[in-house]
């Protein structure tokens, strides 16, 4: 159950309203009230829970939840006293129920006395500027944003409405769309890793003269870094999600809805199509293209272009079926040598 010290509550909510946001059908009293969400194991009669994985079906018979969001195939297994909220997408439906009962914190408009805001910076209506925030000259902050403590916004940065910048995140040389979320310690717009070697063995920095453009509803995880472009821009398409500890090199461009999981990295000037997924610790070389809906497995090393809708794994990466055939042969070879 959500700890009230950390999470707000809008409950109690009517069953009819809960079913509506979940896109679910139900039988019973639509006026019945619920106060929160919880797992099947911990839920009580005033909680809504969910089932989205067959392996957890045995827990359904023992749950004390008052309502369960689930697929039609499991509706008959809901215990007496619980309401089956039947939907084709239980996990999505439950996410929307959780957001209804425990909505995100809303901004408390105002600028904390310890914040430093440049005289020519513009702060939109209804925005909250927290303690020790620094906003540079000419920056523009949209309406309804929250800038948590110790956020730094560089000169000229533009931030769209409804954005949330968590503690100690920083933004420079960037333009952010609507609803962008930067988690604690995220770094946006710092200098990319570009340099030229000199004849005497030193390195001279190549000026990084581009920007970072974050589309609407992009989220950047804690301590992740998105370098600004060298000559052009680094671009993350609308809805793209970066997990914690992700590195995006200069001039990388992603399409819509890409997902990059923890400790993955993309080298400079690489392009991702729409809805590409990189699993944890995957690495992508520079100056290549990954097509739409490509999926890259955990710890894979991608060193060449990948056509659309292909799943790859391994280092160097290869199509999944080829990888497992190669692994089978490798294991067989090892067994033969042992024999």
Automatic annotation (TrEMBL):
One of its GO terms (molecular function) is N-acyltransferase activity. The active site is at 250 (proton acceptor). One of its GO terms (cellular component) is membrane. Pathway: Bacterial outer membrane biogenesis; LPS lipid A biosynthesis. It is an enzyme of class 2 (transferase). Residues 34-100 form the UDP-3-O-[3-hydroxymyristoyl] glucosamine N-acyltransferase non-repeat region domain. Its EC number is 2.3.1.191. GO terms for biological process: lipid A biosynthetic process. It comes from the Bacteria. The keyword Lipid biosynthesis applies. Transmembrane segments: none annotated. Homotrimer. Catalyzes the N-acylation of UDP-3-O-acylglucosamine using 3-hydroxyacyl-ACP as the acyl donor. Is involved in the biosynthesis of lipid A, a phosphorylated glycolipid that anchors the lipopolysaccharide to the outer membrane of the cell. This is UDP-3-O-acylglucosamine N-acyltransferase. It comes from Dankookia rubra. The gene is lpxD.
């Amino acid at each position: 159950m959500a700890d009230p010290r950390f999470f707000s509550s809008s409950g109690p909510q009517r069953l009819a309203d809960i079913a509506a946001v979940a896109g679910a059908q139900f039988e019973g009293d639509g006026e019945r009230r619920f106060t929160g969400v919880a797992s099947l194991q911990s839920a009580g009669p005033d909680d809504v829970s969910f089932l989205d994985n067959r392996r957890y079906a045995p827990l359904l018979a023992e749950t004390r939840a008052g309502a369960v969001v689930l697929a039609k195939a499991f509706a008959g297994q809901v215990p007496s006293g619980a309401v089956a909220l039947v939907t084709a997408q239980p996990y999505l439906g439950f996410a929307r129920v959780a957001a209804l009962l425990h909505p995100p914190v809303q901004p408390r408009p105002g600028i904390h006395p310890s914040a430093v805001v440049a005289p020519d910076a513009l702060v939109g209506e209804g925005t909250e500027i927290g303690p020790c925030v620094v906003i540079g000259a000419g920056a523009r902050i949209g309406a309804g944003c929250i800038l948590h403590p110790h956020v730094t916004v560089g000169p000229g940065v533009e931030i769209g409405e409804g954005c949330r910048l968590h503690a100690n995140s920083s933004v420079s040389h960037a333009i952010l769309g609507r609803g962008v979320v930067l988690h604690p310690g995220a770094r946006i717009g710092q200098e990319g890793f570009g340099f030229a070697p000199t004849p005497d063995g030193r390195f001279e920095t190549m000026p990084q003269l581009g920007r970072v453009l974050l589309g609407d509803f992009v989220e950047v995880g804690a301590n992740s870094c998105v370098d600004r472009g060298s000559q052009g821009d680094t671009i993350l398409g609308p809805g793209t999600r970066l997990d914690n500890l992700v590195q995006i090199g200069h001039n990388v461009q992603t399409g819509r809805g890409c997902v990059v999981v923890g400790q993955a990295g993309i080298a400079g000037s690489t392009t991702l199509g729409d809805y590409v997924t990189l699993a944890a610790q995957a690495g992508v070389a520079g100056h290549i293209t990954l097509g739409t809906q490509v999926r890259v497995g955990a710890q894979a090393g991608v060193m060449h272009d990948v056509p659309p809708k292909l799943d790859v794994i391994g280092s160097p990466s290869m199509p999944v079926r080829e990888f497992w055939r190669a692994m089978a042969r490798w294991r067989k070879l090892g067994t033969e040598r042992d024999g």
